[in-house]
Structure formats: C-alpha cells, structure tokens
Amino acid sequence: MESRGHWSSRVGFVLAAAGSAIGLGNLWKFPYITWDNSGGAFVLIYLACIAVVGLPIMVCELMIGRMTQKSPVEALREAAGPAWSWIGGAGVLTGFIILGYYIVIAGWTLRYVWQCLVWTINGFDPVQAGGDKFAGEFLTNGPLQVLLTVSFMALTMAVVSRGIGGGIEKAARILMPILLAILALLVVSALTMDGAGEALGFLFTPNFAEVESIAVLEALGHSFFTLSLGMGAMITYGSYLSRKDSVVRSASTVAILDTVIALVACVIMFSVIFSVPEIKEGLSGSKSPVGMLFVTLPTLFYQQVPFGNVLAPLFYLLVAFAALTSTISMLEVVVAYFIDNKGMDRVKATLVGGAGALVISLACAVSLGAMNLPSQVTLPLLAPGKSGVLGVLDHVASNWLLPVGGFFITLAAGWAISRKVSEAELVDENTPGWFKYGVWSFFVRFICPIAVGAIIVAVIVGKDFS
Ligand code: PFF
Q1: What domains, with CATH codes, occur in the chain?
Q2: Which of 108, 176, 226 to mutate to test the pocket of ligand 1 (most atoms within 8 A of CB)?
Q3: pLDDT tens-digit profile of 333-386?
Q4: Does any ligand 1 atom lie closer than 6 A to the CB of residue 225?
Q5: Cβ of residue 231 lying under 6 Å from some atom of ligand 1
Q6: How remote is the CA of residue 412 from the centroid of ligand 1, in Å?
Q7: Which atom of ligand 1 lies nearest, measured to the CA of 227?
Q8: Ligand 1 neighbour 393 (Cβ under 6 A)
Q9: pLDDT over 50 (residue 387)
Q10: pLDDT in tens, 13-26
Q11: What is the C-alpha separation between 169 and 58, in angstroms, rounded?
C-alpha cells in the first residue's frame, strides 16, 4: 500500500480544513437562515453553538484522526473499540450522499461565473436575470444540469486523485488566499453602500423576541454542516496531521475562520440587500435560499455595487472555489476509506468514489424539473413533506445523519477513549494556554451529547430545521 500522505505544515492543514469548512454552508445557507430568523439573536445563538458544541466536537474528530492516522472506520475501531467502527462507515455513506447533492448546487456556481462574464462583456439584462423564466429554464435544462454536475465532479476528482500534499493541500494553498482576498474586496465595497449600517444593525443587534425556539435547533444543526462535522471529514483530515501540530490550536483556527467568513458573507449580502428597498421587500416575501445567492445578487452587483461588473464574476468564482474545497473533503472521506479498507490505490479509489457519488448527483440534477419521475421521490418517514431527490437527501443528511454521527463521535471521544489517552493527545507544549482539558472533557461527555441529543429528539418529533 502507498505510504500515507501528510500535510506539509500546520498552515497547509489549516487552509485545507478551513477549505472544507468554508463552503456553500457559509455563503449560501447561513445568510439565508440568518435572514429567515431575523438576524441578531439568531447570530448570537449560532455563535454559542459553534463555541459550545462545534469546537469541542471538531477537537474530538481531529484528535481521533491524528492519534490513529487512519480513516474513520479504522480510526474509530482503534481509538474507541470495534463496536464504534460502524460510525465511521455511516460517515462514509453520509459523505457519498452529501457530495451527491452538494455538487449539483456547486455546479450552478460555474454557470454563474460564465453567465456573469457574458453579462460583463455584453451588458447586463435585468429583466432576463431577475425573471422566473431564467431560473426555471435553468433548472429544467437537464443536459446543462448534467454538464455542470459532471464538470464539478471532474474538478473535484482531479484534485483528490493527486493526494494530500500535491492535490488537496496545493489546491487549498492557491484557492483559499484568493477566496479571502476576493471576500475582503467585496466586504470593503459592501461597507461603503447606503444599506451597510442597517445590515450591521440587523446582524449584530439581538432581539430575542423575534426568534422562535426552533431557531436554536436550526443553529445547532447548521454548526455541524458548516464545520464539516458528523461524517468523519475532520477525522480524515486529522489523520494526515503530524503529531507535532496541536489539535486544539488547529481546530480553533478553523472554527474561527469559518465563523468569520459566514459573518462576512452576511455583511456583504445584507449590505447589498438593504441598499435596495425593492429587493428587500421581495426577499421578505420569498423564502428561496437559491434566490438570495443566485438570482438576487447578480441584479444587485450590476446595478448597485461599485465596480459590480468586475466583482460579479469574481464573486461567483469565489463561491465556486469555496464549494470545490468542500467537495474535495467529502470525496476524500470516501477515497480514504477505499484506500484503507479496500486496499485500492488512490486513483482507483477516486474513480470508484467519484463515479458512485455521480450516480446520486445525476439523479439530483435531473430531478430539478428536467425529468418528471425522480421529482416524485418522497420519503415520508425520514423526510416528511420533502419531495425530489435533492430535497429528500438534504433533509436526511442534515437532520439525521450529521447529528447522529456527531452524537456518537462525541460519545466515543468522551466515554470510550480513556481520559489518560485523550489528555495526552490534547495537552502538550503546543496547546494554547486558554485550553482547559477538564472543561473540554465535561463538554464532550455531557453538554455536547445532551445538546445534540436534543436535535435528534426534535427531529423525531417532526421539527424540520434543515
Ligand atoms: N462545511 C461545508 C459547507 O459549509 O459548505 C459542507 C460540508 C463539507 C459538510 C464537508 C460536510 C463535510 F464533510
């Protein structure tokens, strides 16, 4: 078997793991759910979830990966015992499923990069861009959906097949700084807009009377998705971490970066939205998350944002980069399993994993309206009220698989791995001074399982917070 790859440095790891965490969850889903939940108070609850549940579980996953240097199935078997290895298997399955539908939406970013370039060169057509016909024709255009999905999968496979240092880390080292630079440019330009003050007020002034209790669960569920937790992605990335890198320092850097980017994405989108009253009113009525990122923003970029015709294609390029570094990590979970457990070489594992996920992706891509049959798919027991392959899979993954995976990972780390072992893993001369092992252990043994257990119970009694 080929020797196991490693990140070349802590910075390389942080960029790759932040690349996994920062994605459509930050740029598409978080602004949408924050808008839906009336801003300020929801943001505070989300921040608390990241600190109280997200960060401790990220430490668990990285710790299990680094201590065993194995992919999730074997890592959990070795760290916690044979009875826990199925959690790793469930993670691989979840990786397949999330990659399957996520890549369809990721593919849309390619179309918007291209479309914005066309608008920038030929002139923007607001009637075309804002119209339902435009969005509708796009969704029902089966061949285009398939082409975008296959292209995005091919990009993802090209990177993953090159391995850790030469593929994943290299891509992250190039893409992440560009992403951060474009975001910085956009946020500076957004802050000069008329609506910036109102946007900041909306985002950072908590009004607890406006949030519903379900928002707590929504924030908790999203903190799993956004930090790539609950399916072993961070166990896998942690397994390429060298022993001299502090797990705690790495985890906290990734969690902070992810959170800052999510907030910056909100500042950008909301500044733009609050600067145009008609758009704000339109959004208040519409609940479409797709609308906010893909339909609303082009109009605003070309009509309101200074230098918008340069920034618009750049912005969608940024979203594409962010999505790519996330899809890479999902495929890597599957590929690492095939390498470690099935003895495949990396190229073969990438081909098998990518092709397998593509089956799900294609079903999602044509179920958006191009073909009638798949859109009839429902799963009343697990995904009540959802139809269509993409909607059902998203519901099952975010409401069931990630929280359940996270629940068992925290139990494995807190109860099945001895304190002596976890303390030795987490506390060394590189550990930041603020980290208190006893506090982490209390959170991982009690607070996290109870909080995550609450999500699962809420899902069982039928609350949809996807
Ligand atoms: N964290 C990614 C995002 O916010 O878009 C999504 C994700 C990536 C979820 C990797 C799970 C995962 F393993």
Answers
A1: 10-460 (1.20.1740)
A2: 226
A3: 999 999 999 999 999 999 999 999 999 999 988 887 766 654 456 656 565 555
A4: yes
A5: yes
A6: 22
A7: 1
A8: no
A9: yes
A10: 898 999 999 999 99
A11: 19
Helix (H) or strand (E) holding 324: helix 308-342
pLDDT tens column, 232-256? 999 999 999 888 888 999 999 999 9
Which atom number of ligand 1 is nearest to the Cα of residue 232? 13
Nearest atom in ligand 1 to 402's CA: 11
Name the maximum alpha-carbon separation found in the chain: 65
Q: Which residue has a Cα nearest atom 12 of ligand 1? A: 228
Choose one of 87, 96, 160, 225 to mutate for the ligand 1 pocket test, by most ligand atoms within 8 angstroms of C-beta.
225
- Ligand 1 contact, 16 CB (< 6 A): no
Residue 385 CA, ligand 1 centroid: distance in Å: 24
Quickly list DSSP for 369-412. TT-TTGGG-EETTTEEEEESHHHHHHHHIIIIIHHHHHHHHHHI
Residues above pLDDT 90, as percent of the chain: 55
Ligand 1 mean position to 18 CA, how many Å?
10
Give the Cα separation of 437 and 413 in Å (integer).
13
